[in-house]
Design brief:
This protein is an alpha/beta fold and 143 residues long. The chain has helices spanning 3-21, 23-33, 54-64, 80-87, 95-105, 123-136; strands at residues 45-47, 71-76, 113-118, 141-142. The protein folds into 2 domains: 3-33; 45-142, no CATH class.
């Protein structure tokens, strides 16, 4: 057996021992690192992209509970595939189309759904894209 193999086996055994022996303190540290903010009334509830339909469903529940008077969806710019399909006269629903439908079916009136245009590629960019118009309270376009 080579020296690197023995080192690898030793490190693996050490990691297993630490995991078993230190599990309770590590779990306590993990619980300490979790932060949960309490809900507060807001200008709008923003549905981030992804996890369709669950984020829209949660937003609808928050809306119905009265946490905000409107729900915002981020309408990203179409990619080249979708633009090509549109040029061919083919409409493929986008995620925001589906999210809007989920919101309506769960009791959010269409008049309370707003779109924010942008082209975010990451969650951080989505938050920044939605924050600017929501901060002004009048930058949301009607659905």
């Amino acid at each position: 057996m080579g020296r690197w193999f023995r080192w690898g086996i030793g490190l693996l055994a050490l990691a297993a021992l630490v995991t078993v022996r230190w599990r309770p303190p590590l779990e306590g540290l993990g619980a300490f690192l979790v932060v949960e903010d309490r809900l507060e009334p807001a200008v709008a509830i923003t549905v981030l992209n992804g996890h369709l339909p669950f984020r829209a469903m949660e937003a609808a529940e928050l809306y119905r509970a009265g946490w905000a008077p409107q729900v915002a969806l981020i309408r990203s710019h179409l990619g080249w595939e979708d633009r090509t399909l549109q040029e061919l006269g083919i409409h493929r629903p986008q995620e925001w189309d589906w999210s809007r439908e989920v919101l309506i079916r769960m009791g959010v009136p269409p008049s309370a759904i707003r779109f924010i245009d942008g082209h975010p590629r990451t969650t951080d960019e989505e938050v920044r894209t939605s924050h600017r118009p929501l901060q002004k309270r009048n930058g949301l376009s009607s659905s």
